[in-house]
Amino acid sequence: MPDEPGPRSWSRAFGDLGQGWKQRPLWGYLGWQDIKQRYRRSVLGPLWISVTMAVVATAMGILYGALFGEDIATFLPYVATGLLIWYFVNGCILEGSEVFIANEGLIRFLPAPLSLHIYRLVWRQSLFFVHNLVVWLVLIVIFPQPLSWTLLLAIPAFLLLVLNGAWISVLTGIIATRFRDIPPIIASLSQLLFFMTPIVWQYDTLLKNPAVAERARIAELNPVMHFVEILRQPMLGQEIAWRHWYIAGAITVVGIAAALVCLRNYRSRVAYWV
């Protein structure tokens, strides 16, 4: 009789991911219920997601557009699309760091794979993204953009974001379960990342200014910028800068590898740490 694989084995780690994926009806239902529960008894229900996004995007687009002297017809869709992507990325980062802590009861008393909670989180953030996509569609109708076949690149770009949201949740979720100081640190860093990411300011505009062009290139060190650009560029019909894809792809490969190693080594300890 062959020996059972130990708790720190690749077969257990990949088995966890596979079992969680097979339970799609469960985490799909739970993710949708999370959204309904959040807006329970409100008049608009989940539509508040899009309303909130529209108000914030319009206010910030008009304000920063006036400050930077940008054309509102191009700047407002730019800001709204950036916020749309940022909400997804930020949601995966913040909720990912607490994904196992928040599900302490289920992890302790329900014999389910850990990946189920990761799939549930990413699915919930994807639903938020789809809701907010309505704002982008409305702005594209009001302020037509030069869309082309490159719009199709938005599909693989979003799938790349989903993969990164998953590995970030696995990695930070496990680490934060062991060290509870991690979630507030990540929350503080996410606020800093927002201002370092070209969402309410345009990177290309700064590059054209000789006074700040060299310092503006520091923004390239921000990994979130590349993930925002690979999705925003096709969604606005902008010229595709392939360097963002190369960098995002490299980050994805390294991140998935790190998350798998962490899952392999510490998956069995999460139930004790929570």
Automatic annotation (TrEMBL):
It is a multi-pass membrane protein. It holds the Pfam family ABC2_membrane. Keywords: Cell membrane, Membrane, Transmembrane, Transmembrane helix, Transport. It is found in: Cell membrane. Residues 28-235 form the ABC-2 type transporter transmembrane domain. The keyword Transport applies. InterPro entries: ABC2_TM. Its main location: membrane. The chain crosses the membrane at residues 47-69, 75-101, 121-143, 149-170, 182-201, 244-263. Belongs to the ABC-2 integral membrane protein family. This is ABC transporter permease.
